[in-house]
Write a structure and sequence with these properties.
Elements (H helix, E strand, L loop, with lengths): L1 H38 L2 H58 L1 H10 L2 H12 L1
Helix pairs in contact: 2-3
């Protein structure tokens, strides 16, 4: 019995080494083919182009949206500034009129009737 075990040993070792070598060669071949197929695949390029164009489209839409928001903000600021300046101008005009001409008219009303008539005639000439 011992002799038959020894005779089978080299055959089993050769078979095991053959299977191992076959698996290694198969793994290397599959890895090589996968690398070349995926790296040069037209499908991958098309999908990559689709993804790139989608990103470009999204970025373009975001930029357009930001431009529109900036334009709307600038328009709002300009309108608000114009309104505030208009109101301020009116307020200043009212203040100046009330404190100058208004006070002059109050003083005019305090004058005697004859002096008021004299001033009216001088103004109307």
């Amino acid at each position: 019995m011992k002799a038959s075990n020894r005779e089978n040993r080299p055959t089993v070792i050769v078979i095991k080494l053959g299977i191992l070598a076959g698996l290694v060669i198969a793994a290397v071949t599959v890895a090589y083919l996968a690398k070349n197929t995926i790296g040069r695949s037209k499908t991958a390029d098309v999908l990559g182009a689709d993804v790139k164009s989608g990103v470009v489209d999204s970025t373009g839409q975001a930029i357009d949206s930001a431009k529109k928001a900036a334009t709307d903000t600038v328009d709002w600021v300009n309108k608000t500034t114009s309104d505030v300046l208009s109101q301020s101008t009116q307020s200043v005009t009212d203040y100046v009129f009330n404190n100058t001409v208004g006070n002059l008219l109050k003083q005019f009303d305090k004058l005697p009737q004859q002096q008021q008539e004299t001033i009216r005639q001088a103004i109307c000439r």
